[in-house]
Structure formats: C-alpha cells, structure tokens
Specification:
Blueprint (H helix, E strand, L loop, with lengths): L2 E8 L4 E2 L4 E6 L9 E7 L19 E8 H7 L12 E8 L5 E9 L2 E4 L4
Parallel strand pairs: 1-7
Antiparallel strand pairs: 1-2, 3-4, 3-5, 5-6, 7-8
Length: 120
C-alpha cells in the first residue's frame, strides 16, 4: 500500500530537526492552477511526522511540494541568521507516479545547505 513520509536531519547540530514545520501541497489540484495545501505539521522528536503525510487512501498520482520552514527552525534553536536568511523555506517539488508505491523524502539541512533524495 502506498504512502508518503519525510524525515529531516539537522546536519549543523547532528540531530533530528524536531519541531520543524512542514507543509504538503498538491500542485496540480488547486483552484486556478495554484497549489492546494493538504497538511501542515510540526515534526516530532525524531524529525518525522507522527504518521504518513499521505496514506493508502489519499495517495494519488500527481505533482506535490513539501515546504520545510528551515530559518524559523534554526532561529528557535538559537542560531543567529542574517536577515534575510540564506535559506528560509526549502520548497521541494516532486512527483508521485505510482499511487501504490512508498515515497520517502528525507531532507538533510543546515542554515547554508540542504540535500534530498528518494529514500526507502
């Protein structure tokens, strides 16, 4: 059964990004072609959502965006960031081609860099 999950690791501090705000948007389902926000949540102590972002009942083929609120997370940790910050919100656009598949989208992030990949 398909589902979508994420996991964020704070590479500056070497720990999960607990408390980071994340939003999931559907890019090809909004009115007038705009994004439709499906879910907004704070990551748990392990830097993960408490459940799937999309489960088997809500998985659908299409284009999606994850928005990771990076600058607010680092400011809350006491990191002094410039104004404006180098990285504020990471917007990650991706596609789901198989609604029965497992899509895991990890993010490794610091105030000045990030990387992602399709995980397992």
């Amino acid at each position: 059964m398909g589902h979508l999950s994420t996991h964020v690791l704070d590479t500056a501090h070497g720990c999960p990004a607990a408390g980071m705000l994340v939003s999931l948007q559907r890019l090809d389902a909004g009115s007038a072609g705009g994004p439709l926000t499906l879910k907004t949540l704070a990551l748990n102590h392990d830097g993960r959502a408490d459940g799937p972002l999309l489960d088997a009942a809500t998985m659908a083929v299409g284009r999606y965006r994850l928005l990771f609120e990076v600058a607010p997370y680092f400011r809350a940790r006491g990191v002094a960031l410039p104004d404006p910050p180098f990285i504020d919100t990471v917007a990650l656009d991706f596609g789901i081609a198989d609604a029965a598949g497992h899509y895991h989208v990890p993010l490794l992030v610091s105030p000045y860099s990030y990387s992602t990949y399709r995980g397992s």
